[in-house]
Every structure is written in structure tokens, then in C-alpha cells.
Design brief:
2 domains, Metallo-beta-lactamase, Chain A, alpha/beta, seven-stranded mixed β-sheet
Amino acid sequence: MDNTVAATAPQTAMPEVAAARRGPESKLRYPIDPPPSDGTLVEIAPGLLWARVPMPMSLDHINCYLLRDTYEGRDGWAVVDTGLGIPRTQEVWEKIFGETLAGQPMTRLICTHCHYDHAGAARWMQERFDVPLLMTFGEFMMLRGLMGPPPDPLPELHRLFYERAGVTDEQLDEMVGAMRKDPFMPQAPFNYRRLRKGQVLTIGEREWRVIVGEGHSPEHACLYNARDGLLIAGDQLLPRITSNVMVSPIEPEGNPLEVWLKSTLRLAELPEDTLVLPSHQGVFFGVRERAHEVVAHHAQQFDQLRAHLATVPGASACELMRVLFPRLRSPVDHLMALGETIAHLNQLLAAGDLQRMRCAGKIDIYALARQEGKTT
């Protein structure tokens, strides 16, 4: 897990868990050097600018994009994603619109999804720049639902979810306690304008089709311009890491990996010369190669689980988490790694590869499924 937080916020991590790195043979190309995280802008194409907003954690930036726009009588710039809802983020946006762009206005704010590095400053930007917020329904509602720390005491069904995964009371208290100390919880935006799958947004001289992905978040919106071969990918496709895909107590029997893999393979259908504008790391060519790398990474994780379960009579989700993620560094890392492990297990259960049993009425034990008279 590569997204633990720097010393300024030692108990917090972002939802973009770095589980899969590119192999050394990867041929992704990075045609543009990134800007520093200080309000400097880099031109990607006419009317399309790249800004980096700093974050006080190991994943130390988010890429935000500015699109030349005329909207509701304003000539200025539409913004994609916000950064965290902290004073440093506000300082960067004040510099961009007050100095770098010499007072040109923001026209509208588009958030790819609900996670707080992408939408944490949305309410402040709505108020400060008097702009509408555009999101999909699922992301806006999840953003509002994620406001605030976990309740205390934790709901019994949530506690049972972790108990059945093999989490001890002490471990759960550490994980939930870390989330309650999270310093980056944003304020809820006031309202929004809905983005829908397949919708076409006219922004300046370009048309952008909304491509909706699932798995990392409910209805993640990517923006694709076919004429110029540009994909604002958010967290749906990152060049060196892959986003966390997890099961939580909110939907314990969910299968987010199934829809995540389908969403990723849809991006692999885009033209090979598409320039991918991700939310983290560099702008790159290689959309098809990277999409297939991500799918292959998860296939490898499925194989790791099957191989381990072939050597033992059964194991809990916590035990299997250590197979996939042997080097965890914080309680929040444990929380996210456990959720991603259960996502893999739920997919294998749905495929009929595993069976799940309740041990002593308390902990779920996973084993290879019986096949053709063989037992595990």
C-alpha cells in the first residue's frame, strides 16, 4: 500500500491504494513534464492546462485540469477536481485564478468522483468562485454520505463485518480510531448538476463524452474527447499504481472488482494514441497497455489467493490479507487492504472458485470449492 500519509498526518491515508506497479517491461510514454505543485500551469493542448495541487501525504499531489470554457455568460476556465479541503489547496487555487490566469474566472467545477482529494474543496470552490458543481448522482450522494467520522459506537452490523473477517477488537479500535482522527474530512457541497453516462459536455471548442466507471467509487466520471484523443481519467486509470477497490460494511456482499475490471477493459477499447490525463503521476500514452496491466495485476492476485488456499484447509480474510499485502504500515492501510482482499474473495465466491464457512459461528473461513468429488 503506497498511499500512507506523511508525518504531517500520520493516521490518514487516501483511497488510491497503490497495489499494482507497472512491470519493468511497460512501454508507457510520458510526453509532458509535470508542473510543480505550486499553482504553475502546463499546457497539454490549446485550451487545456495541467495543475498540480499538493497533498500532505505520501501520495503528495493530485492532478487537476483546466479547460478553456464559455459557460452561462462567463469566458474563463472549467476545472476538473479540487484537491483536499485544506488551506494549502485554497492558496493554490487563489494563486491560479488571481495571478497565473490574471483574474480570469472559473466557469464550473467538475468532480470525477467523491474521494476527498478530488472533491474535498468543492464546497469552498462553489462559494469562493460562485460556480456550479457537476458530478454523477452516485458520487454526489456518496460524498454527502461520507461526511464526518465513523459513528461512536460503531453500528453492530459494521462491527460484525470486521469480526467475521477475523479482525480483533483491538485491531478494529485502531482502524476506526485512525479514521476518527482524519484531518481532511470535507464539508458537504450545497448542490450539484448531474452528469450521466454517455452525456456530452461542450467545454470551449471541445466535446467531452462522459464515460462512467465503477468499482473504485460508485459512478466515477471520466471525460473523453475523441477528436483530439484526450481522456481525463481521474482514478480509473493511473500509470504506476492502481486504485483501491474495496468491500466495506455498507455493502458486505458487494462485488466491486467485477465492475472495476469491466470498466477498465472498456477503457482498453479507446484508440491506442489516446493521451491519458490521470489524477496522479504523469500524463501518458498507452491506454490499452495500461488497462491490460491492471487487469493482469488483479488476475495475479486471484492466483495468489488460490495458490495459498491450496496449501491450507481454510483461512480468514485477515489471514489472506497478509498474502496479498505483506507490508502494511498503518491502521488505515490495514482497513483498506482488508477491504480490497474481501473484494477479491467476493469475486472468487461469485465465480464458484471458493466456498465460505462460518467458524464457531463467528469468523468466516474461505476454502477452495469442492470440485468433482474432491474436497479442500
